[in-house]
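Researcher: We're teaching a course module on how sequence relates to structure. For the next exercise, students receive a sequence and then see the predicted structure as tokens, so they can try to spot secondary structure elements on their own. Here is the exercise chain.
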Amino acid sequence: MECKSILDLPLDIKLDFLSSLDSVTCLRKVLHREIGIAGRALVRMRRFKANKTEAELIEALPSTEDEKPESPQAYLSELLSVRRPVRFFSRLFFQTRFRNRRVRFQSSIRLEDILEDMETVTDSEYARVDEAYYTIWLYRELNYNVELRSFQHVTAINEWAFWKKDGSLQVVPDLGILSHVLRVTSLEIIYPHVLQYHQTLSQEELETIATVVDALCLYEKHGVASMLITQLGFDGLQEVLEISGERMRETISNIYWNPVRADLAGGSISNSITQFPTLITNFWHFIEPTYQTDIRRVWRYPGGVYRRYVAPWNQYPPFDITALVWDDKRLESWGYVYPMGTKDSHCEYDMALEEQMCAGDCSVIGCAAP
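Model: And here is the predicted structure for the students to work with:
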């Protein structure tokens, strides 16, 4: 059977079907296309870092050998190693979206309702969220232990991962979707587990951690999630989430007290709260001069005007950044409308993503959030 005869099937059906075939090349081609540019850049990055110690990575730079897999079978394994965890988190993402929507419009929800909703997620909707997770994971791989390398080495690795030979960017994520997926992952997928751990701590323990972190509430909502992603990757985080609750609590406990251990050792304490949001903000500042107008149907009421040179998270209400992941057909059925036009001017009160997240998620009035 030729690949083109099944290209229009949902990805999960493709995987189940192709896995039963004696055609590694066929399955590899499908996965190669489905994970997109960001996913393939992530695969190359992980291939470069494989089998190297931290000491070796201080001086190691990518070579032409890192552009090529060892074999079709090895490449299939590499693709699956990033594809499975990403789709795991994409499913969790959509589950939270449907659950929240049903809670908003219904007094009660049933598991079967959520499962029925999940059957309606389209390939294009999954692709948008998948790309965001591949990109966040790529950021993690690029910046893990970055402080051990020289500026020249960091620059060279980033150029290798992000740039084409003709000088154009090969990974240009939708920053609105990227910021939304990051926020949902922190607050709705990971934070509930952190909150359960928080409830096991004494007041004395909470006061101890509060002395060495900026804004305990933000640290628990965003900082711990950031450190979990940074230290475990999405594959390691998936493994922890799928195992018992006790394993999750142990993992969170080890991560949670890292700032205290660093402080006692006299080392520097990284600002984990804004680690990923700062990267997204910096990327926005880089691509903003050439950013194209967004004409997706993300206005909840008529009359919306899209501000061309303003980050998606700073658009005027009733722009709904949470709607960016959905197809236009679905949004139209939910009552969303197209913007009335665009506005080129900048705005003085635009906030960086990290500032906006801190302002919106800090539960302490007057807290000196970073």
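Model: If you want an answer key for the exercise: The CA atoms of residues 41 and 161 lie 6 Å apart. The first helix runs from residue 11 to 19.
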